[in-house]
Amino acid sequence: MRDVLNDVERWLAEGKRIALATVVARKGSAPRGVGATLAVTEGMDVSGSVSGGCVEPAVIEEGLRAIRTGKPKLLKFGISEEQNVERIGLSCGGEIEVFVERLGAAQTSLRALRNDIALVRAVIIAAPDMALVGQSCVIAAAEDEARSGITDETLRTVVLTRARELLSGGESHVEALATSAGDEARVYFDVSLPQPTLIIVGAGHISIPLSQLARVLGYHVTVIDARETFATPERLPEAHEILVEWPDEALARIPLTPSTAVAVLTHDDKFDVPALAVALRGGAGYVGAIGSHGTREKRNQRLREAGVIDEQIARIHGPIGLDIGAQTPEEIALAILAQIIATRKRQPVAEKLVAAGS
C-alpha cells in the first residue's frame, strides 16, 4: 500500500470513504506484481494501479460496490484460449487475482507504513464460511501485541504464527490454511518491510557503480570511509549519506536490521576487521567482504582474535558477490547487489566471484 499511501492519507483527512484493491496472486505474465495496489474513493478519485490499465474499470466498479456495501470480494482476471479477447482480461496473457475491500481494518496499517516500520497484514480472501472473508490481523515490528479481527481460533493461531515469521523478512503471498471446521481458507500475507539500506565500507572504485545501482533499486545508500580524499559527494553523487569516519565507529551508531546490507570493500585489515566485527554483532541481514579465499582465511583468524565467533564469521559472504565472471567495477557491483537481493529474498546463490582484484 506504500505506493498509494500519500493519496489515501489525504483522502482520509478530507473525510472520504475509500476502497483498496490489491493484487494477491499472479500467474504467468502480468503488468503488475503481487502487492500492487489501487485505491478509489466514492467520488471516483483513483490512485495506483493493479494491471497497467487493462482491468482497472472493472476493479474501480467493484471498489465502489465495496464502499457502499462494506463487503470484500476476490476478483480473477485473465485470458485463456477459450475467452474472447474483447472480454475483460489481460492482453499479456497472464492471470491475476485482486482482492477488493473497503478501507477499514487496513487503515490500522497506515501509521506503521508512514514510519517505515516492518509490518505484516494478513487478510482472509476466500473461505467456505463467507463470514471469515475480509477478517484480518496486523503485526508491526514496533508493537508488542498483534491486532487481530480473525474470529476462527485455529486459523487465527496459525495466521499469527506465520505473520510473525514473515515480519523478519519475506514476500507477500497467499497460503491455504486450516480452519477450526477442518476446511481451508486462503489468506493473503501483505508484507511491508522498511526501505532496504546498503552500507558500503570503503569509497573505492567499485563503490561508485554499486551506490548507483543500489539507489536505482530503492536502497538507502550510506558510504563510510575515513579517507577524506575518497569519501566525497563528487565521487559518490548517488550516495544518500557519506560518513568520513572510521567504519567501525560509524557502524556502531547506525541501526543494523535484517533490511541492512553491509558491503566491506576496503581490502585493508585495519578497516575490514573492526567493521566486520560490528556488522556481524549488530544483526545486519547481509554482510559481505571483498578479498580472495586466501585473504579470507587470514581475515577470519583476525576476527577470531577480535572475539568474533565462528558462527558469526560463517555469515560473511566472501569473496563477495555472485559468480558471474565479473571483471569491471560495474560488473562486480552488479554481482554484489545481485547477491544482496538474493540473500534478502532467501534464494539459493553461488558464493564465488571471479573478478579482477578479488
Instruction: Supply the CATH architecture of the largest domain.
Output: 3-Layer(aba) Sandwich
Supply the number of structural domains: 3
CATH class of the largest domain: Alpha Beta
Beta percentage is: 15-25%
Lateral arrangement of strands in the main beta sheet: 13-12-11-14-15-16
**CATH topology label of the largest domain:** Rossmann fold
Which radius of gyration do the C-alpha atoms yield? 23 Å
Mean pLDDT: 87
What structural class do the secondary elements suggest?
Answer: alpha/beta
Q: Could you name the ranges where pLDDT drops below 50 across 5 or more consecutive residues?
A: 79-91, 348-358
Walk me through this protein's architecture.
- The chain has 358 residues and is α/β, with parallel strands linked by helices.
- The chain has three domains: 1-103, no CATH class; 105-194, no CATH class; 197-344, NAD(P)-binding Rossmann-like Domain (Rossmann fold), CATH 3.40.50.
- It is built from ten helices and 16 strands.
- It has helices spanning 5-13, 56-69, 110-114, 153-167, 207-216, 247-253, 269-282, 293-305, 310-313, 329-344; strands at 18-27, 37-41, 46-48, 73-78, 95-102, 119-126, 136-140, 147-148, 173-178, 184-192, 197-201, 220-224, 241-243, 260-264, 286-289, 316-317.
- The strands form three sheets. Strands 13-12-11-14-15-16 form a six-stranded parallel β-sheet, with helices on both faces. It has a five-stranded antiparallel β-sheet with strand order 3-2-1-5-4.
- Strand 11 (197-201), helix 5 (207-216) and strand 12 form a beta-alpha-beta unit.
- It is elongated, with a radius of gyration of 23 Å.
- Mean pLDDT is 87; it is low at 79-91 and 348-358.
